[in-house]
Automatic annotation (TrEMBL), chain A:
InterPro entries (UniProt xref): FTHF_cligase-like_sf, NagB/RpiA_transferase-like
Organism: Psychroflexus halocasei
Superkingdom in the source lineage: Bacteria
Name listed for the protein in its UniProt record: L-lactate dehydrogenase complex protein LldG
SUPFAM superfamilies: NagB/RpiA/CoA transferase-like
Automatic annotation (TrEMBL), chain B:
GO terms, molecular function: 4 iron, 4 sulfur cluster binding; metal ion binding
A Pfam family recorded for this sequence: LutB_C
Protein name: 4Fe-4S ferredoxin
BP-aspect Gene Ontology terms: lactate metabolic process
Keywords associated with the record: 4Fe-4S, Electron transport, Iron, Iron-sulfur, Metal-binding, Repeat, Transport
Record-linked SUPFAM superfamilies: alpha-helical ferredoxin, NagB/RpiA/CoA transferase-like
Annotated ranges, domain 4Fe-4S ferredoxin-type: 292-317
Upper classification of the organism: Bacteria, Pseudomonadati, Bacteroidota, Flavobacteriia, Flavobacteriales
Length: 203, 462
C-alpha cells in the first residue's frame, strides 16, 4: 500500500519530461431563440420516453393506471403523489425490490439529451430509481436547461452525495447488437410536465 | 510471459465460419456510422474534440496538483481514498477492505481497470464471489473469456452463441435466440443476487478535482444498482481519469457516447460525491504504469483516452480479427499502444496488427495520434529485436521510408511502394502483416489500404 506522498512522487517524476499546457476556455454553445421544451421533447422521444403535460397529480396518476394496469406496488418519493408503499418506512434499499412503479420529482431536465437530473434528495432511497420496474417522473417545465454545459454550470449541482442524469429507461445492446430496453434498471420511464406547487418551492 | 500470437488468434476467429466475422464487422461498422450521424448533428463537434484534447493535456501535465486536490475534496466528503502503485497493490487493498467487512459476495459493474489488474480471479481465489452486473460482462464471465471490446464486451459472440451459453448456464431454451427474452432471463437470474451482495464495486469514467466527485457512465443502470444496494461501495479509478472542474464534464459527456455508440449519452451518467447515509465509500486510485507512461515522449498522449471504443469500431483490422485476438485487456488500436507498456515482449506483435490506415486517429474524440503511436511502437519493437528475423528484415527496408511519418496517407503510399519492391520471399511471408496476409497480399498491391478502406466503406453503406 503506497502512501500518498510516494504515489504523487512517481507522478512528479513522470511529469519532469512534460511541458505544462494551458487550460482552454470552454464556451456553453448556447443557441439564440431556442424553444427548450420543444428540443427536450424531441430528445425524450429519441430516448423512448413518453411524456404528458398535466395540470394535476391526479391526472398523471390516471394516465399511469391506464398505461400499467397490472402494477400493484407504487412507491413515491414525492409527497405530491401518494403510493401504497411508504418510502420513509424502507429500512434497507433491497426492500424496494417489489416496487412496480417508482415515482419521484426530477430536479432538472437537459434539452440536448432528453435527460433528467435526480439526486438522493429527489429519490430519498437511491435504489428507487433502479429497482422499480417502471418509473413515473414529474418535472417542472421551468426547470429545463439547454445542454450539458449549462447543466454543469448550475450552482451546487454536485453538492449531493449522489446525482444522476437519467436518459430514459435502462437499455442494452449486448446480445447480437440488438437494442433491448429494461436491461437491469427500469423498463420504462414516463415523464409528466407539472409545475412545482408554490408551497414546495420554498423548501 | 508467452508472446501473444495475434495472427493465429485472428485466423481462428476469421476462419471459424462465415457468420462470426461478417456479423462482427457489420455490427461494429454500424456503430461507427451511428457515431458519424451523431457527430454531424452537433455543429461544434470538432471544437468539442479540440477542447477535450486540450483539457486532457492540461490535466495530465498538472496531474500531481489535480490529484491532490481531488483527494482532499473526496476525503472532505467522507470518501476513503487509497493509493495503489500497481495491480498487486490494487487487489490487496480491495481484498483488505472487503475482508475487514467480512464480505462474501460482491456485485460489480464494468471496470477496465479492475480487468487490467486481474481483480476478479484474485478475489475468487480468496473465496469472494464476484458477479458481473453488465450484461455483456456477465456473458463474458459465463464464457470464461475476457471482454473483447471495451464498450461492447461480448460483441464477438452471436445471439446463437449466447442462447447456447444461457441454456447451459441458466437453463433457458437453447432454440430461443431472441435478444429480448435472453435479456429478461438474465435480468431475472441476476436480480436476487444483486439484493444479497455485501459490497458493490465500480470503476470511474471521470474524477473531478474541484469537487471530489467521480462519474460512472452506463446504459443498463447496473452501476447505480451496484452502488445503491450494498452498504459498501469501492471504486477503482486510474489516475488519468482526473478532470479539473465540473464544467469539463459538459464537454466529455457530450462526446463520449456519441463516439462510442452514436447515442447522445449513456442512459445513466452517475455522480458520486460522498457515501450515502449509513454506507461506506472507498476509492482506490491506481497508477499501474501510468506515471511511467506519462514520461514516455511518444506514448504519453495515450493517457488522454476516454475508452469510447470508436477506434475499435472503425478499425478494419479489429473488425475482422475481433478483440480476443489481441490477447490483452485492451484491444484494437488503443490496445496496441497501451498493452506493450505493460509487457513489451508479450505484446510485441500487436503493433504489426494494423494497416495504418489512420481511421482511428480520425475518429478519436480526444485527438490521440493513434496511428502515429502504433508506428512508433513498431520502431521500438524493431530496435529491441522483439520481432522475428524475417519481419525485422522486411521492416528495415520499409522502415527507411517510413522514418518520418507526417501524414499517414502519404506513408501508406510509401509502404505500398515498399511492399512492391520487397523480395517475393518477404512479401509472401505471412508475418509481414498478419492481417494483410489473410486479405491476400496481391489485393493490397493493387490498392492502398486507404483506397481499399474507402471502397469497403462504400460497400458497407449500401
Ligand atoms: S483512443 Fe480515442 S477512439 Fe480509442 S478508445 Fe480511446 S478515446 Fe476512444
Amino acid at each position: 500500500m503506497s502512501s500518498k506522498e510516494d504515489f504523487l512522487q512517481s507522478i512528479r517524476a513522470g511529469l519532469a519530461k512534460r511541458t505544462p499546457t494551458a487550460y482552454p476556455y470552454i464556451p456553453t454553445f448556447e443557441q439564440a431563440g431556442i424553444d427548450l421544451k420543444a428540443v427536450f421533447e424531441k430528445n425524450l422521444k429519441l430516448a423512448a420516453v413518453d411524456f404528458y403535460d398535466v395540470s394535476s397529480v391526479e391526472e398523471a396518476q390516471k394516465i399511469m393506471q391506464e398505461r400499467l394496469p397490472d402494477v400493484k406496488v407504487v412507491c413515491s418519493a414525492t409527497d405530491e403523489w401518494e403510493g401504497n408503499k411508504d418510502i420513509d418506512a424502507v429500512e434497507q434499499p433491497r426492500d424496494l425490490d417489489d416496487v412496480g412503479l417508482g415515482v419521484f420529482r426530477a430536479e432538472l431536465g437537459v434539452a440536448e439529451m432528453g435527460m433528467i437530473w435526480v439526486t438522493e434528495k429527489s429519490l430519498k432511497v437511491n435504489a428507487l430509481g433502479y429497482l422499480s420496474q417502471h418509473l413515473a417522473v414529474l418535472l417542472d417545465p421551468a426547470e429545463i436547461t439547454e445542454n450539458m454545459h449549462t447543466a454543469y454550470q448550475r450552482p451546487g449541482l454536485l453538492d449531493a452525495n449522489y446525482g444522476c442524469f437519467v436518459m430514459g429507461s435502462s437499455a442494452t445492446a449486448d446480445i447480437g447488437a440488438v437494442l433491448v430496453r429494461g436491461a437491469q434498471g427500469a423498463k420504462s420511464l414516463t415523464l409528466f410536465f407539472l409545475k412545482t406547487k408554490d408551497d414546495e418551492t420554498g423548501k | 510471459m508467452k508472446k501473444v500470437n495475434v495472427e493465429k488468434n485472428a485466423a481462428e476467429f476469421i476462419y471459424q465460419d462465415d457468420i462470426h466475422v461478417t456479423e462482427h464487422d457489420k455490427n461494429l461498422w454500424n456503430a461507427r456510422q451511428k457515431r458519424d450521424t451523431a457527430a454531424a448533428q452537433i455543429p461544434e463537434w470538432e471544437e468539442l474534440r479540440n477542447l477535450a484534447s486540450a483539457i486532457k493535456e492540461h490535466t495530465l501535465t498538472h496531474l500531481d496538483q489535480y490529484l491532490e486536490q481531488f483527494v482532499t475534496n473526496a476525503e472532505k466528503r467522507g470518501i476513503k481514498v487509497h493509493f495503489a502503485n500497481d495491480a498487486a497493490e490494487h487487489n490487496a487493498i480491495a481484498y483488505e477492505i472487503l475482508s475487514s467487512h467480512r464480505v462474501k459476495n460482491i456485485i460489480k459493474s464494468k471496470s477496465m481497470l479492475q480487468e487490467e489488474c486481474g481483480m476478479t480471479p484474485f478475489l475468487e481465489e480468496k473465496g469472494i464471489g464476484v458477479l458481473e452486473t453488465d450484461l455483456g460482462e456477465r456473458i463474458q464471465q459465463l464464457s470464461e473469456q475476457i471482454p473483447s471490446h471495451i464498450v461492447m464486451p461480448a460483441i464477438h459472440q452471436t445471439k446463437e452463441d449466447i442462447a447456447k451459453l444461457f441454456a447451459e448456464k441458466i437453463g433457458t431454451d437453447p432454440n430461443n435466440t431472441d435478444p429480448a427474452s435472453l435479456n429478461t432471463a438474465m435480468r431475472n437470474n441476476a436480480r436476487p443476487k444483486f439484493l444479497l451482495a455485501d459490497a458493490g464495486m465500480t470503476g470511474g469514467n471521470f474524477a473531478i478535482a474541484e469537487t471530489g466527485t467521480f462519474v460512472v457512465c452506463t446504459n443498463e443502470g447496473n452501476a447505480d444498482l451496484t452502488a445503491s444496494l450494498p452498504p459498501l461501495h469501492i471504486a477503482s479509478i486510474g489516475i488519468e481519469k482526473i478532470l479539473p472542474k465540473a464544467e469539463d464534464l459538459g464537454v466529455f459527456i457530450r462526446i463520449l457516447s456519441r463516439s462510442a455508440l452514436g447515442t447522445p449519452a449513456t442512459q445513466y451518467t452517475s455522480h458520486f460525491t460522498g457515501p450515502r447515509e449509513g454506507a461506506e465509500m472507498h476509492i482506490i486510485l491506481t497508477d499501474n504504469g501510468r506515471s511511467k507512461r506519462l514520461a514516455m515522449d511518444e506514448f504519453w498522449k495515450s493517457l488522454k483516452c476516454i475508452r469510447c471504443g470508436a477506434c475499435m469500431n472503425t478499425c478494419p483490422v479489429y473488425r475482422r480479427s475481433s478483440g480476443l485476438a489481441y490477447g490483452a485487456t485492451y484491444s484494437g488500436p488503443i490496445g496496441i499502444i497501451i498493452d506493450p507498456t505493460f509487457d513489451a515482449k508479450k505484446y510485441s506483435e500487436l503493433p504489426f496488427h494494423s494497416s495504418l490506415c489512420g481511421s482511428c486517429s480520425e475518429v478519436c474524440p480526444v485527438h490521440i495520434n493513434i496511428a502515429e503511436q502504433i508506428m512508433d511502437w513498431r520502431k521500438v519493437m524493431m530496435k529491441n529485436k522483439e520481432v522475428d528475423f524475417s519481419r525485422r528484415m522486411a521492416f528495415k527496408a520499409v522502415g527507411v521510408m517510413l522514418g518520418h511519418p507526417k501524414l499517414f496517407r502519404a506513408v501508406e503510399k510509401v509502404a505500398y511502394n515498399a511492399i512492391n519492391i520487397l523480395p517475393e520471399a518477404i512479401t509472401e511471408n505471412k508475418t509481414l502483416d498478419p492481417w494483410a496476409a489473410h486479405r491476400k497480399l496481391p489485393d493490397v498491391k493493387k490498392e492502398t489500404f486507404r483506397e481499399w478502406y474507402i471502397k469497403n466503406r462504400k460497400n458497407n453503406e449500401q
